[in-house]
Amino acid sequence: MQRYRVLQDSLLCIEDSVLKTLKKRCQNSQMNERGGILLGKVTEDYSQFTITEVSEPSVEDSSGPLYFHRNQARAQKIINQRWKESDGEINYLGEWHTHPQINPIPSGIDYLLAWESVYKNVTEIDTIFMIIVGMTGNLYIGYQNRGMKKLERINIIPLR
Ligand SMILES: [Zn+2]
Q1: What CATH number is attached to the domain comprising 30?
Q2: How many structural domains compose the chain?
Q3: DSSP result, 53-103
Q4: pTM listed for this prediction
Q5: How far is the centre of ligand 1, averaged over its atoms, from the C-alpha of 34 (Å)?
Q6: Is residue 91 part of a domain?
Q7: From the CA of 152, how far away is ligand 1's center (Å)?
Q8: Does any domain span residue 54?
Q9: Is 33 a catalytic residue?
Q10: For 133-160, what is each residue's pLDDT tens digit?
Q11: Segments forming the whole domain that contains residue 29
């Protein structure tokens, strides 16, 4: 399990199995972008978020070398199903996708999606994490909640 500091008093934890899955999805230049959703747990006081699973890309998503658009109906079905199966413990925590970059950074569309997700969609937690996976497995991890103007990079130096 990797732990990262999000804001002064909250932590993001990512289970090893999730990191392994994401790194397996590294993009090479021949491939289209791929992605899915992040699912996991949040403590009642919002001091700790734990990403426990990710959805895999599907044929219902549309993607090209420089864009990825996931199928919303399929994602919503997964969110509802996991929420039910876990008695409300597993929630939607955000989005992941690949970029054809060594050191991935969000595009303008990524910033817009994060902003819309926090301010326009009614999500359970008013918070979104966005993980972008680069071609060699480097990760960008961003975070936005209500009160933040834009997605901000999380310090990804693991805590001891
Ligand atoms: Zn992107």
Answers
A1: 3.40.140.10
A2: 1
A3: EEPPP-TTSEEETTEEE--HHHHHHHHHHHHHHTTT--EEEEEEEE-SSSS
A4: 0.89
A5: 10
A6: yes
A7: 14
A8: yes
A9: yes
A10: 998 989 999 999 888 999 999 875 555 5
A11: 2-153
